[in-house]
Amino acid sequence: MTGEKEHERIQRHLSDLARMGRLAAGIVGKGQEAYLADSLDGQILRAAGREQVVEVATVVEKLPEAFKAGYPAIEWVKIQRMRNMVAHHYDLVQDDFVWETLRTRIPGLLRELTVSGA
Q1: pLDDT digits over 33-75, tens only?
Q2: Residue 117: helix, strand or coil by DSSP?
Q3: Whole domain around residue 35: which residue ranges?
Q4: How many Å is the Cα radius of gyration of the chain?
Q5: How far apart are CA 3 and CA 96, in angstroms?
Q6: What's the whole-model pTM score?
Q7: Cα–Cα distance measured from residue 109 to residue 21, given in angstroms and rounded to the nearest whole number
């Protein structure tokens, strides 16, 4: 892949991450009580939150290794492990942990990558 095409692809992925960050922030904006509520709305928020975790990890997986190497402080493997937990072992997922991921880890990832518009 040419350098220019790879750069465009990376920019698309970063733009996707910014969009996902906005969605995660929107979920968090509803509040932890609403997120953890034992109601249909709470279930919908938790499903949306889990989906954002999976989508973020899916995009991160598509980033080139050379790009990731430029950000050694990011725990790339942990991002993939979280995705695998949410996607494949959903019965073991702790909702408060997903909440914290939405509230702190996704915004932290975006800050570390200096993704604007998040």
Answers
A1: 999 999 999 999 999 999 999 999 999 999 999 999 999 999 9
A2: coil
A3: 3-112
A4: 15
A5: 41
A6: 0.89
A7: 9
Rounded Cα gap, residues 10 and 70, in angstroms = 13
Token pair, residue 12, equals: 């698309």
Rounded to whole angstroms, what are the CA distances from 96 to 33, 37, 92, 99, 102? 10, 11, 12, 5, 10
| CA atoms of 102 and 29, how far apart (whole Å) | 10
pLDDT exceeds cutoff 90 at 27: yes
DSSP string, 50-110: HHHHHHHHHHHHHS-HHHHHT-TTS-HHHHHHHHHHHHH-GGG--HHHHHHIIIIIHHHHH
Query: Residue 67 domain-assigned?
Result: yes
* Number of structural domains the chain divides into: 1
Is 117 a domain residue? no
118 falls within a domain: no
